[in-house]
Write a structure and sequence with these properties.
Layout (H helix, E strand, L loop, with lengths): L2 H11 L8 H11 L8 H18 L3 H20 L1 H14 L2 H18 L6 H20 L2 H12 L3 H21 L2
Length: about 180
């Protein structure tokens, strides 16, 4: 492989691919996955790095993680400073929508979290959160309203100190997820 061919491959993999169709992006991925035995180790790293950047642009799911960070940080601060208002807010938002819809929302969030797990340096945490969201969604879909009301009443009747500790845990999780985003 000549030096000009190496440069062409590197240039093909380092452009903004937002204006391409999915089939064109696949072609670019195939172009970068050629047999690279003639390249030096640093050139292989550049190509592999650029290929992963293109893959991330195709599968850009980081918005769900940023949304999770913002919501957890907001509720964590609210629970830390105003635990009674945080309890009221969680009770009002939960009771304002049918539990069936909350279950479907939780399953959608679980799917989106699972899809975005590859964007963080330790995907296991996001995968665990996705599984927990899926279990919550199934719980809200399957269990009767009386059981769900009983659990909701339990969590809204805990002490203010517990809610403040919960707020601190949410803030720590939001910060940690923000730090592990690639």
């Amino acid at each position: 492989m000549s030096d000009s061919e190496k440069v062409v491959i590197l240039k093909l993999t380092s452009f903004n691919s937002t204006f391409l169709s999915d089939s064109e992006k696949v072609v670019i991925l195939k172009l970068t996955s050629f047999n690279s035995t003639f390249l030096s180790d640093s050139e292989k790293v550049v190509i592999i790095g650029q290929r992963s950047i293109i893959f991330k642009k195709i599968k850009n799911m980081s918005w769900i993680l940023y949304l999770l960070i913002v919501l957890w940080a907001f509720f964590g601060i609210l629970a830390l400073i105003f635990p009674k208002k945080a309890k009221d807010l969680s009770l009002k938002t939960t009771r304002s929508v049918p539990y069936l819809l909350w279950g479907i929302i939780a399953l959608i969030i679980a799917f989106l979290l699972w899809q975005s797990a590859g964007l963080v340096s330790t995907p296991l945490l996001i995968q665990i959160l996705a599984v927990l969201a899926g279990i919550k969604g199934l719980f809200l879909l399957v269990f009767p309203r009386s059981k769900t009301d009983a659990m909701l009443n339990y969590w809204t009747n805990v002490s203010d100190v517990f809610y403040r500790v919960f707020g601190i845990v949410l803030l720590i999780l939001a910060y940690y997820i923000f730090q592990i985003l690639i």
